[in-house]
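In practice, a research group might receive sequence data for several interacting partners and want a quick structural hypothesis before committing to experiments. The following worked case mirrors that situation: the sequences arrive first, and a predicted assembly follows.
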Amino acid sequence: MQQLNNQSQALSHWLNARKSQWESLENTLKPTASRRAQEISDARQLLSGYRALLSDLSLSRRVNGKAMITRYLENLFLKAHEEIYRPANHPLARLIDLYHWEIPRLMRELKTAIFSAFALFALGIAAGWWLIGSYPDLIGLLASPKMIDHVQKGELWTDGLLNVAPSSVLSLSIAANNITVTLFAFGLGAFYGVGTLYIIGFNGFMLGGIFAFTAAYQLDGRLFAFIIGHGVVELSVIIIAGAMGLQLGEALIRPGARNRLQAFQETSISAGKVLLAVTPFLIFAGLIEGFVSPDQAFNLPQRAVIGCCSGMIFWLILLFGVPGKSRQQ
Amino acid sequence: MMNNPLNKPGSFQDYLHIQSADGMDYQLEIAGMGARTYAFVIDWHIRLLLAISWVAICGVAFFNWEELRNVFKPGHPGYTGLILILPTLLIYFLYHPVLEILMAGRTPGKRMTGVRLVDLQGHTPGIGALLLRNVFRLIDSLPGFYFLGLVAVAFTGKHQRIGDLAAGLVLVYDNVDKTHSLQQISTLTLHSRLSGDDQTLLLDLLKRWDELASERRILFATQFLSRIGRDIPEASDKQTQEQALKRALKSLLGEP
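A structural hypothesis for the assembly, expressed as tokens:
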């Protein structure tokens, strides 16, 4: 009985002595309006409170087991641990780093996969061209009856695009569609790369087939004029997304020294950075496709200049980065 | 050793075990398929309602019926579609990524379910990880109704969908208990010999006491007292018994 009283007194003494420090640590951890305003003294207080908390938590686990006081201290420990160990948050600096050196590095790593995706896409174009050129009746597999009807009447389905929807809405829906295709080309790589092979191969096949079909009616030049303005960036992004999907598939098939999950995670994180970097270009390509491509006021040379310039800027940024000062320097 | 929660047998897969750099080990309870689905259903209803509300409010405020009917027709000004459609799509598709970033791994649905996303260190995930998780939503939702995602949740040790696996995130129960003050917890520690779970149960029961129907109060209090091996006070009428039971519960807290 005497021992129980002594234990109870010790617990009471410990709780009363430590309570104010836990409250103070809890107040330090509360989100403030501005993190920048935190002084060095606050950081010191947090560190010393954290160290004391570690010992309190060990003691509480030993003495009180899973009692609520232990849970309270565990929660406080988690918050303090996160506050101390979380990386510094500088989104703008990280964005600059991304375009300055990270993307060129990741693109170098993706080199083989990009060539493979491009080869697959080109193979798809050639196969589509050959198949539809040899068996024009098969165009029904790739194009809707309405599109076929347009071409057979000697006009492109894109001719009256601006009469169907305004440029702004068109750009929006095109950008959304391109982003979806890009995400699918990458994400389907999670099926050991097979999904990506299908998306890239099929997109190439469709492009080749449609060109072969329009060529039979002498409309291929007009189709090329429609595509050239936005196509360079758009197709480049889809090929890069395909390359990332192939990389993802390879990480699952041949993880190397890592386990499959680690390989999948590492590749996904790298690919996520590239996806983030190319998304603004997809929106830009959507704007060109909505405002320039269907507008008859732009002639072929003008469209070609827009397409080549936008493509060149895109590849220069991705391969060599945006000039500037990064944290690495 | 006996009290170490990390040694709890048969529950290894339902906890995210973490060892900090300071040698302190801790664990977070992983949310399963039920909690995940419940949170998703709540979020789905919220975003759908928000999207519909936007269309309804903007439609009534800025356009007449004829304009609304012609939104997609040729020659109609593009701003109509932009004002109506763009925000609706943004609300619907960016709901999860934006709110997960702003609410530190939570959404309203997750908050109501009591779950949150953490990285493998138990920390709030970064923006990149949350965006990546949402990119894989496309794959998780294949071929429909999140079938692939649910299969992944069912068969992975940490109950992760493909997006979580890619981004290294886990959905865990949010144990932060804001309803019980340090004062209450200290009193309970000093005056009670109850186990941790019983302490939580006791505080929850007393907190909800006024919300419960009379029969439920008596039933739960009686069950709790018998569970911890305490005498159950008897009384002639219901009201007196309720008061006696509440006193018995409060005495466990060290309160009069």
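Before designing any experiment, note the following. Residues 92-320 of chain A form one domain. Chain A has two domains: 2-85, 92-320.
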